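Before we proceed, please read the two lines closing this message. Report back on whether the structure tokens fit the sequence:
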Amino acid sequence: METNRMKILKQIHHILCILAMAALAACSTAADGDSDGNGELTIRFTATPPTRTTLTNSDPAQHVTYVQVYVFDGTSADARCIASENVGWEQLTGTSASQYYTLKTRLALGMEYTIVAVGLDCSKTADGTVDTSGNAYGLPDAIKIGTTLGNTVATLAEGKKQGDIATTELFAGSAKTVVSTAGNVVDLTLSRCVAGVLAYFTNIPKDVTRIDLVLYANQRKNVPLTSIAASAYQPEEIDGSQVLLSIPVTNDILKGETVTDKEGNTIDSKLPGTVLQGAYLLPLPAPADAATGTMKLKLYSGDTELHSYPVAQKESKEQNFDIEANVIYTIGDKTATTDEPYDLGGDEGLGDDIIYVDGNWQVDVDIDI
């Protein structure tokens, strides 16, 4: 017959066995990642200030209103997307913004992942319709579970046109991380994937009824979102898209002191006697032939071309240059503190026969084009 002391020792042993088994089970679960904090990853997003959706000045002001984060199970081009989550972006537009987000998906300890995020802008038109860069590029759903890292490319959605690119921004960022038992926080910066071109003119010759800014080639309709995707990137063109800006010149526009959107809403101010227009486009490399030049400015009277000016960079005087992501190319100067339209020389024209564009570099973006 067992003594009370022996019974107590057996009970203690039994409890210790149960605790040991529980500890082993917990360790096994932790190796795979679970919901108890193991395999947890927190991302610190930062949105840098490019410019707003309606491009009428070169003031820095980010316009991110929605962020989607994707997790890829590795760092090579064939790594696959295993998670896609809405960050619930709550930051104000206008200035640099940061926000933390903890993934709901638990990740395996010791494994290297690539985190990719896409930031979209959103604006509401006069009829209440919401217009976003997500609509233009089919995001966030265009990147699905199973999509490979090498295919993280934003492409103009079916039925969308050049004008949809011209009026929407697109942001992306990526980072690599290895999940450990320590606090896992990865920094990820959202940078603009599109370029911007802004043209602001005064002293326009009196016979001019239209000013076109023309690219040497059609615009592209797709852009890689990561440097890994860029290595296998196959550019696609938008047919008939060489005219980037087509600016009407009428007495009413010249007399006006405001700029309106297509719904008639006032979106910015301008000096009387000027015309002002801007557009976004996807990055475009310089032409292979150095004599071609990236852009030309053409003045028309009706359908008759009056003059064609090559466009060169202000500092280098180079006419062959890349259109780079996260850069605003301005002809004339329009900011919150500067209002200096480009003087076209009136009826006497331009003496040097060259238009100079000033590239406003915002943030380096490691995406080849």
Observations:
- Confidence is low (pLDDT under 50) at residues 1-37, 50-54, 56-61, 361-369.
- The longest strand covers residues 304-313.
- DSSP finds five helices and 24 strands in the chain.
- The longest helix spans residues 4-32.
